[in-house]
Amino acid sequence: MGMEEPRAPMTIEKEDQEEVELLAEDEAALLKKITALAEAIGKLPSLSPSPEVNALFTELVSACVPASSIDVEQLGPAAQEMRGRLIRLCSEAEGLLEAHYSDLLADFANPLDHLTLFPYFNNYILLSQLEYGLLARHVPGPPPARLAFVGSGPLPLSSLVLAARHLPAAAFDNYDICADANARAARLVRADDDLAARMAFRTSDVAHVTKDMAAYDVVFLAALVGMAAEEKARVVEHLGRHMAPGAALVVRSAHGARGFLYPIVDPEEIRRGGFEVLAVHHPEGEVINSVIIARKPAIAVDAAGNNGHAHAHAHGHCGAVVSRPCLCCEMEARAHQKMEEMPLEKLPS
Q1: Strand pairing of 248-253 and 171-176?
Q2: Sequence ranges of the domains in the chain
Q3: pTM above 0.85, yes or no
Q4: Were both Cys, which of 127, 149, 247, 257 would link to 68 (CB 3.0–4.6 Å)?
Q5: Phi, psi of 249 (to 5 degrees)
């Protein structure tokens, strides 16, 4: 890609400095560091992978991942503006990184044999294991037969890992608004007859997908689909209108300082979108994204407030609505045990 226009700098103005003084010492130091990194990233002529870009984003992630008491949503206007711009820079850089590695992988006869070349492949292994474990615990029943991943991008590792390791009979529809991203993604499964038959790549804004949404047992919503809170709320509300009763929704979010990297999703927004929230999980360590598991109720309520049993989803596991479970995690222990037992080298062919 060619050189991009320089971005406006993000500096610590008077308002930022006053806010820093109101924070605890460790929180103030973190905010100053993140603001300085945001300024440096904003000055880069391009966010395509390079030693300088990689070093800055590695430093940013390293600063945001450790546990912190900072509540990024309670920061003042100047810091919120910096955070919003930084999340968008992260999104742009992530897209360029995935496109770069998708092109690199496509040069191999079987791209799926070389996924470990992607530097964060192990993170996707762990995140997919976590999401699958949370779904199995909180939405019990037969494995889902058809899933949608909204915001799949040029390197759809989540779908690939879930399809190959956890749901070997399921069909996946990957939605992205960018045709080039879908073209890149489709090349990755060309040498694997099984995955090529079970993976579809659809170029569409999810806001325009209506009837098709009722076909899915589970819908995954990527962290960077709807980066502003109001955008995310509109997407969730749309899914709530068009998904099938009993279908599950998996939403990626963030917690603590990781909210400088990805948008934070309020579980109340999921409820207002028409879902029952079954679990909210904030992992530690390598997995950066928080995970919200929700379900569209299988009980329909009419305008008079009367309950009526909705039809069960044709493909899924749609019995009675699951009551909200305890979130202490024997599941987490099982998931981590499975992570330790599972080889991470590459996807099975």
Answers
A1: unpaired
A2: 24-105, 120-298
A3: no
A4: 257
A5: -125, 130
